[in-house]
Amino acid sequence: MDKDKPVNKAPAPRRRAQGLGREVILEACLRLAAGTEPDALSFRKIGRELGADPTALYRHFADKDELLLALADRVIAMGMDGYVPGTGWEDSVRDLMLRIRAGFLHYPQVATLAALRVTRQEGEREFIEAMLAALSQAGFGRREAALVYRACGDFVLAWTGFSAGLLLLGEKSAQDDEAWVRSYAQVPKGKYPLATESVEVMARVQDEENYRFALELLLGGIAARLRA
Fold first, then answer.
1. What is the pLDDT of residues 197-220, one digit of tens each?
2. Does pTM surpass 0.90?
3. Which of 47, 67, 88, 175 satisfies CB 3.0 to 4.6 Å to 54 for a cystine?
4. Quick check: is 2 in a domain?
5. Domain range spanning residue 84?
């Protein structure tokens, strides 16, 4: 054999399609979704992560939408793992809305999807049941509890989707805040006195701090409704 002649390495064997399953695919997706790479959940990248032909995914999921909804529900279920109702409704609702947010922010690629969709699967049902149980404990009737749940559910999903977008922006988010402060320093004094005085404080508020503050405002509004 000519030692100077390059040796062609055999391509890495692809995982046999029958060796794949929904669980294996979802675990691979979670690994990819934990990063900030653009379009991390394309079938091509999922297939590469699995060492399988991307078309093999269609044997387990009808399309990408079905896969992404299953993935979103898996993240909700992971967030619900270990949940125990608190001694009062406020403790329960606060815990639920913090743990679901934390779970999604670990997988920002999934959070941006979940903010706009309902999964209609087990994890989501468990979350809804726990929230409605807490609101029933608070004293809300069935319709009122449903309305309050919608407000809370949309609050956590929308805010978390926004927060995930900030994570995916990376340094650009902090750069935007700095540009915000600098731009107001150039505004003529006296034109927007309150805004120019407060912009630096507003820009320094961290996203998690902001979420928790807003959550307490929401819980306070719910409590006030109960007292009305």
1. 999 999 999 999 999 999 999 999
2. no
3. 47
4. no
5. 62-227
